[in-house]
Amino acid sequence: MSVFAAIVRRDLKLAVRHAGDTAVVLAFFVIAAILFAFGVGPEAGVLARIAAGVVWTTALLSVLMSLDRLFAADFDDGSLEQLVISTDHLVLVVAKVVAHWLVTAVPLMVVAPVVALALQLPNTGLAPLMIGLGLGTPILSLLGAVGSALVLGARRGSVLVAVLLLPLYVPVLIFGAAAVEAAITGTGHVLPLQVLAGLLLVAASLCPWATVAALRSAVE
Amino acid sequence: MHKYANPTQFIRIANAVLPWSTAIAVAAFVIGLPLALVFSPPDYQQGETVRIMYVHVPAAWMSLMVYMVIAGSSAAFLIWRHTVAHLIARASAPLGAMFAAVCLISGMLWGQPMWGTFWVWDARLTSVLILFFIYIGYIALLDAFDDPERGDRAAAILALVGSVNVPIIHFSVEWWSTLHQGTIITMDGLTLSGDMARPLLIMVAGFTAFYVSVVIIRLRAELLAAKIRNARQSLAAAE
Asked: Nearest-CA neighbor of A157 among A92, A105, A77, A218?
């Protein structure tokens, strides 16, 4: 079994054993989205107008909430050090990111349509929302890996990582939400999705290197 | 270039530059401010409000330039382990954040008479706002570790990640803002006559020279602080 598959399997197994962690993130996602309905009122027109933005924003925050299990848990119990010593760093980082995406983003994408419909998102917006989440959430995991590796061992790491990452998440939010809105208004949702795909390629080619550098300086 | 990595060598050059940059900054403000605030003509469209531009535009320019300095010296620090490079980045960060804040505040003061409200989600202003938060994150990361060296390295990596992201964020925000609203009057929409361009250039020169002077002063303080730390450590080791 390759190292890559072994690390992914290990993280998936850990996620299954601690299924509560995934459930908490999902619960956060749903509650945060519902809060908007309480905040702006149950009027269907208003909700429909903000649904795409709310789903995207809360998905973004949920990914942020889940970042501590990317590296921090392994860092605290020392297993991250063992992994860094024993394997190729790039393989380790990519495997960790893939596992994080499978454990966090995939469940989010299962729940997202339900939340979107509860927020009265028009049906035409559903497909671009899901495609956008499919293209955008890997970017969130990739950037999240950089951020959570940077704050390993820092004071107030979980708040700090939010301040570091939220500005970097802005483009994903812009194009993800814009694709849904364009589909609803019929102004061409292909362009923003293409941009998201482009951003994913850029993030996939650069973020692992930055994460490796950050991990090395953390474990050194 | 590696010659300047030696702190003593670097400080010698910095000390030679300091009086010049300070003189240029003072001269530029003494000449530029009256020119900009009193003697330059009011704009036919914006009236006297246009004078805010002479502070706003140099501040916006500096907030970007300081970020480029931080990214450049972070790269030098990570690649060659230049000791001075990360001190430059560390000394520049609060200045960059301050320039971004000046740009935002002056932009809001300009927006009140021009747009009738302090804040419009104008693309440029919004990108500077995000740049401001990137600065805040960078500064927070620098000081988040008990081991200062770890903070330096983490912040340097963040600065490089940010340097790829800042243009992407800028273009996304620009695209987003044209999507949601029609064209509004912006500061870059105006064509500058010579009477306006001259004070603006003088102010840009003044802001830049001011930045150079303050960074040198902060660098000297950082190097002295490092010296004190080392002396204390060897004293503690001797005991």
From this structure: A218
